[in-house]
Amino acid sequence: MIRLVVRPVMIASLVFAAIALLIRTQPYDERAPIAVLVPIHCRVPCFMDIRPGVTSIDDAITLLRHNEWVSRVIPLPNEIHPNQVNWLWSDKAPAYLSRGSSRLDGQLFSTTDRKIAQINFDTSLTIDDVLSILGDPKEDGLIVAGSLTTRIDPRSKALIQLFFPAYHLWVTGIQSCPYYTNFGQLSTSINITDSHIRDPLNTPFKIVQHNNLLSSLHSLSLQTCGF
Known about the structure:
5 helices, 9 strands, alpha+beta, single chain
């Protein structure tokens, strides 16, 4: 009787182990949205093998030029003395990486020691997409028209910023009045840095806990939009 019970249990265990092994050995899909937020081939912060705080701006230019996702690399102010790099996506880049104006789709900024300080690019990933991948952020920053103003102006837009210190990144969505309506469906820009994620922000912002985000957006909308 014991043999009859143990044998099916052993078979089931082997089956589950085989499934788990199969999942773990599947090829990593670097085109999947999660790859932008949680890189597997290099330690965060990292994007397209470029690591803020580690990769030099000259090496970053080389990496971009050898990446099939990129169609054009634009060093600024010039090739000899670059301190900022813009690029355009190619038709081989994943669809969730947004194509912007004719001038740029993404940007790199360097420090005085010519290391990459920050990587910026736009995506079609929504705030809800990001939350489903990374979970709730530690805290949120809210910025309205560059400052927290008490003057009512229905044309003012809110920058809803979600900060993820463990991943060295924050995401930004721009919301029109009223701020509390469908903010989870806003498309996002991604900002990756090796420094404290507050350091690059020079604009005044208001910090609220994530579970108070909706009520804070509602209050902010009444204050700034008037509704």
